[in-house]
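Cross-check.
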Amino acid sequence: MNMAIDHSKTQSLSGILANQKQAFSSTPYPSYQQRIDKLQALKQALLKHHESAIAALKQDYGHRPDSDTTIADIMPCVNNINYTCKKLKSWMKPSKRHAGLLLSPSKVAVEYQPKGVIGIIVPWNFPVQLAISPLLTAIAAGNRAMLKMSEFTPATNQVVRTMLAEVFSEDEVAVIEGEADVAAEFSSLAFDHLMFTGSTAVGKHVMRAAADNLTPVTLELGGKSPAVIAPDMDIDTAVERLIYGKCLNAGQICVSPDYVFCPQHKVDEFISAYQARFQNMYPEFDTNDDYGNVINDRQHQRLQGLLEDAKAKGAQITAANAQPMTSTRKMATQLVTNVNDDMAVMQSEIFGPILPIMGYDSLDQAIDYIKSHDRPLALYLMSFDTATQQHVIKQTHAGGMGINETVFHVAADDAPFGGIGPSGMGHYHGKEGFLTFSHAKTILKSGKLNSGKLVHPPYGNGIQRALTSFFLR
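Predicted model, tokenized:
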């Protein structure tokens, strides 16, 4: 295989795309076995570079727990490859459809055809998983791909580049790096499909750029994902179920609980329970290796600004580790009460270890608030009451939902993952991912018997009148 090189410095982006499209044109439908072989090779490369990825992400973050990378970056990709290999043969089969009496005796089927070259824009929070997961699905669907990696994870980018160069030639998969100007140029290329994972604000720019080429897009965005603690739920249990989703990667997750709705009279109990469990999970917090950093100074300063704005507008802030916050990027969850929509912390996705808590008097009050705001990528409900669960499921919209758990629904291999409205469009993971990166081509096939001639002009003969009378009833 080719040695790892920086494609963005040796060729123009449009040149790389042209080479990939030409290569795709020569092999527009890789066989099942060719796809399986590539997926298995990718899996082995992931396992081989596991430790390198851990070290690289630790370097890029200043500190990131080994287990965060294993659990959230490597493991989902390996599981996804295993699942995809198991299901791929059935996904690739043409789907027989009912032609109907009007088209009889012709037959109708849908062929799932590779689209061509897929563009994948990768964020910094889980750069291995959010590069490899869409890539492996694109490969399973028979495509080639170009990946634009984040400028905030240079060490990890080199591991990904080296890993992929061991499996794919440069006209199969290309890795691109660069700042915002490169990302803008990348999103304006005439891909056959473009997938972006990132903020809603940037997603709008990506979609505008893609529109010039009528490139279909899948946008995995974010939003303010609420966690609702129902009146029936024990607070200790609720905290146990949601805290991991807020602490993994220091809350820098698109589906992390962004704010909590809690019964008004239980808010203080929630804060005490969260502090107790946090300190149990991360004793001696300052030196605890199980909790990661905010990725860089820019993001840390942004989060500090959210807290300062909230405090200036009347919010109360309580640290989960019950200690004053240090100037380092290792930041315990900051629990924020007395919040309102005038505060910046309630206006956009937090993407970090800050957790506003809103008290409510009735569950419908919480539901009405959620419905009056942008539809989130995830919604979490803490309740064991079936009627309550069904009520919230039916009354709210979100990209996905977790009941008595947070974050883990993303790891379901046999279910689609995606947003709705401002939190995104389109799906990937599992079969839905295969379909996203495939063109569903309808094929009608007629044999020697030509029933179509029965409707040819001149119109108005007896057979046509009988057909019209039969079908218009």
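The radius of gyration is 25 Å. Residues 1-10 have pLDDT under 50 and may be disordered. Passed to J.P. for a second look.
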